[in-house]
Amino acid sequence: HTWGEATLIGLKGFWAFTLTPLGFLIVLYGLNVVAWGGMLFLLLIGGGDEYMCYPPGSHGEKDCNHIDSPRRIWIEIDSQILNALFCVTGFGLVPWRFRDLYYLLKWRVGKKYDGLRKLAGIHRSWFRLPGSDELPVHTLHSNTLAYESPNSAHPALPIPAAKAPEQPLTGIRAPPTSLWKLDYVIWAYVLNTFLQAVLSGFMWGMNRYDRPSWSTGLFVALACIVAALGGLMVFTEGKRVKRVEGIPVAEVEVLKDIEKGIEGKKKMGKGETS
Predict the structure, then answer these.
(1) What percent helix, strand, coil does the chain show, rounded to 5?
(2) CA 30 to chain centre
(3) At what angle do helices 3-18 and 249-273 cross, to 10 degrees?
(4) What is the Cα–Cα distance from 32 to 37, expressed in whole angstroms?
(5) What is the percentage of the chain residues whose pLDDT exceeds 70?
(6) How far is CA 240 from CA 47, 101, 119, 127, 249, in A?
(7) CB of 152 closer than 8 Å to CB of 118
């Protein structure tokens, strides 16, 4: 595809995702984070200082850092809203994050390999077990291997075996994922929850007069960084798997439908010109 066609396919795929109930909520959430985060950034770099640096009773004297100036009040409002938005993921995903941590500790501390196999099934979109690249490759797109042996003890299969990766469309299985990357992702998300709890303690446990000025910026930055690093690892490893095994059938069908629309428009355009 040309750059324009690839962009159009991406935008149409994004729009189709946005029209789903979950997609709409995720996009709405993201827009709120961007909007309130952008406003906070502008306030911190001096945007609006000409109008927002005159606290009550200042008699026209400019003081941007006065605790009662409109600038400081809006920084507090923005910070509280962003903290609440980050709590949605930081605390809302706790059951899944601590489930993963339980299986990780079961494997690392308890030395029970079943914990790793459980995690492989949960993170099948980007994680591959050691030896999984040597499993037989079937010509069918269905996950034949998993359903033929639902209680398989094969160490290269996840638990349950029905969570085994789909048969690769390329006929080649992706190489095993480095095990430290699984530790990295799980601990990054758990650390994000911990940092969010610390941030919430400062934001909700102290008023803006007593709260240390460094606390909000520090813990917002740390919580965002560790979550972003975990997400980046999942994204890059997912791309690596797809590059080797091909795009899953469901995603291929969606792309084909979008491409058909583009090809149809091209043909209509050619018909009109002729």
Answers:
(1) 70, 0, 30
(2) 11
(3) 120
(4) 8
(5) 82
(6) 42, 24, 18, 10, 17
(7) no
pLDDT per residue over 179-208, tens digit each? 999 999 999 999 999 999 999 999 999 998
Q: How far, in Å, CA of 137 to CA of 249, rounded?
A: 16
The sign of the torsion formed by the CA atoms of 81, 84, 88, 94 equals positive
Pick the closest to residue 175 from 221, 238, 133 (CA basis).
Answer: 133
Query: Residue 40 has which token pair?
Result: 């906070």
Report the distance separating Cα 155 and Cα 188, nearest Å: 26
Number of alpha helices (DSSP H) and beta strands (DSSP E) in the chain:
10, 0
For residue 104, which amino acid is it?
Answer: L
Cα–Cα distance measured from residue 100 to residue 109, given in angstroms and rounded to the nearest whole number: 14
Chain length of the chain:
274
DSSP 126: T
Q: Which residue in 170, 162, 152 sits closest to 248, CA to CA?
A: 170
In the numeric block, the tokens 């994000």 are attached to 192
- Cβ atoms of 164 and 143 closer than 8 Å: yes
